[in-house]
Specification:
By secondary structure, this protein is of the alpha/beta class. Helix content is 33%, strand content 14%. The strands form 2 sheets. The protein has a 7-stranded parallel β-sheet with strand order 8-7-6-9-10-11-12, with helices on both faces.
């Protein structure tokens, strides 16, 4: 029986051409428009492997419709878009792409800098011919060097952000569900409670996955605990933030600004209240969008698929 792989986004042909000719590849025609669910349901019925992206909702109904399916290989480090419990019940392996995404730290730190130094506002002024002259406090923002960065989610990406922060001689504190003793030793990071992180950080950087514990954790009560000079940076998951509470905190000047690469509903639209605020820098979920990193992610997804369909263990399995 011929093996069949379903891929929910269009990938460059160079990645597909390395697969054995004996494998049937069904790949969606667009690299940015989602594969319609009805088409995915039709194609997955005879699929042995499914390569997904983080915006694909892979639930029990879809998994149950695929009796031959052995693996869902997710092109992301997060996997909250997949019902891992249902996959486990059906003996389907779920994999992700951890460790190769530390380039997200570059984007995160760039977002931190852009938010603090009001780069978005400055760019718009120049583009709209609104730059009139120099003045002492024209677009004056916040310093980054020697400040305190509080990292919520001290996985590989969080540790990479901490490493970059040390170059700015920042004090690094963090909160994580488990202490990272090696990171503390290597980076000089200090473990603190969530409440202390909120109270003392000049920059609160969220890199945590979406779980029952983290969902909506950044609400108005959390923002109230921050200093009015604090900047909130989120490059983790959008649903950890109650966005109407963030809008209120920014509008009320409870916090100084926000840099956001992720949102509750994506893509975010221009009429969204967050995008009406000058002290918000917004990006279209491009944390890992470097050519090298995306190449490694795709290769890892395909390698996991290859190993599982051949009866071997995957390189990066997701476990409950």
């Amino acid at each position: 029986m011929q093996l069949k792989i379903v891929i929910t986004r269009k990938l460059p042909e160079r990645f597909i051409n390395v697969l054995p000719s004996s494998i049937e590849v069904v790949m969606w025609e667009s690299d940015h428009i989602p594969m319609p669910r009805e088409q995915l349901l039709a194609q997955i019925k005879e699929a042995d492997a499914l390569l997904t992206v983080l915006s694909d909702h892979i639930d029990r109904e879809l998994l149950a419709a695929a009796p031959r399916l052995k693996i869902v290989s997710n092109l992301a480090v997060g996997y909250d878009n997949i019902d891992v419990g249902a996959a486990t019940d059906l003996s389907i392996v779920v994999t992700n792409t951890p460790d190769v995404l530390t380039t997200t730290a570059d984007l995160t730190f760039a977002l931190l800098l852009a938010t603090a130094r009001r780069m978005g506002e400055g760019m718009e002024l120049v583009k709209e011919d609104q730059w009139r002259s120099w003045s002492p406090f024209f677009l004056a923002g916040g310093d980054v060097h020697h400040k305190t960065v509080g990292i919520f989610g001290m996985g590989a990406i969080g540790q990479a952000v901490a490493s970059r922060a040390k170059g700015f001689q920042m004090e690094v504190i963090y909160h994580n569900r488990n202490r990272r003793l090696e990171a503390e030793k290597a980076l000089g990071a200090t473990y603190v409670s969530f409440e202390e992180l909120l109270r003392t950080s000049d920059f609160v950087v969220c890199l945590a996955p979406l779980t029952k514990e983290t969902a909506d954790i950044f609400n108005y009560e959390a923002f109230k605990q921050m200093k009015p000079t604090t900047y909130f940076i989120n490059a983790g998951r959008g649903k950890v933030v109650v966005e109407e509470d963030l809008v209120k905190a920014l509008s009320d000047k409870r916090i100084a600004g926000a840099g956001l690469d992720v949102f509750r509903e994506e893509p975010i639209r221009s009429h969204h209240p967050l995008l009406q605020l000058k002290n918000v820098v917004a990006l279209p979920h491009v944390g890992s969008a470097s050519i090298d990193t995306r190449t490694k992610m795709i290769q890892l997804c395909l390698k996991n698929i290859e190993r599982v369909v051949e009866g071997n263990s995957p390189l990066t399995p997701v476990k409950l």
